[in-house]
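REQUEST ID: PR-0412
SUBMITTED BY: lab tech R.K.
PRIORITY: routine
TASK: structure prediction, single protein chain
INPUT:
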Amino acid sequence: MRRNFQFVLLLLLLFGLSNCKKANTDIQYDKKYIEPIKSARKKVAFHMAQNSIPGANVAVSIDGKLVYSEGIGWASKDLEVPAKRATKFRIGELSSLFTNVLYQKLVEEGALVPDSSVQFYYPDFPQKRGKVTISQLANETSGIRPPRGDEELKHVSTSLQQGIKLFKDDPLEMPPGEFQNPSCFNYNLLGAIMEKTTGEKFYKLLNKYVIDTLGLENTVPDNPFITIANRSNFFEPNIIAQVVNASFYDLRMNEPSKGLLSNAEDLVKLGNTFLTGDYFSEETRENLFEPLKLYNDNISRMVNGWIIFKDNFGNTVYGLEGTAPGGSASVLIFPEHKMVIGYACNLSSSVRDTPAFMIANAFLGTEEETGQGKSKLQQ
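STATUS: complete
OUTPUT:
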């Protein structure tokens, strides 16, 4: 059955839809980019078939304009519900990028001061060896340990404050500000600080400052106990690599770090917020992608949640890949080309790499080099 699904998917995308006609698919495209769109669609179709991905959506914007967006495959295999452009997927660590936007706005308003200690805003957090600042939380340089195994996923709790108990009494793994060590606990603590400082729940702050303001119609916290329109089913491979329904997880305790649902178009809108427009002040924008100096004058590879690097063709790229049980996503910004690419799907981290680089190569006219997506976007 899985092979039959893959074959049908390929037939639809490569032949029946080769002229980008609106057949059994949900697609928007700019005819000016018809050739790179055709190439990108073929690459994504092969990637999905190769990795047994049930459903996904993809979006591309150039110079702030959406030039391609499409839902592919199934949001629900059991009910045979197609994945649409508006289908919401789990985006894992990409949730931290939305949290960082909220952080930047609260800094601009003076509600948060980046160099202030965590304890200034959150007195219940124990003192550590060395001052831990909220800026270090946002840039993953606090020294706070990462989760052990999947401990952050095993607790059912709606409270960010309760989630802090998992790690608050543990010693730092390294001196604050000297090394970059990504951990979802950094952004969970940052979200808890935002709640303490403003007196509002994190999801309400996110709605007020980010989701509503930026018009992100398909980005919401993933609450498993309520009905959410256009939410995909979630899938994962079992021990013999068969794709099955994912196990139940409640990610609300991890909303700031990996607990959001979103889609490719909203990821592109988010990328454009960092790339262009007047949402951020000029001062904020100047520092969004400025690398940090770490121990022995080493330069950070991450800033404000984004991994910064040169691709194999010399293009500057800001990007991030995320995964959560039953979902994966990635977003790339090519600032020199004013291009943003978003991708989201309903299969967890067994996916070998992101197809976002394949899409980029189609639009940039560069030859694809296998594996660059995985190696560059891993945190």
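NOTES: The two ends are 35 Å apart (CA to CA).
REVIEWED BY: pending
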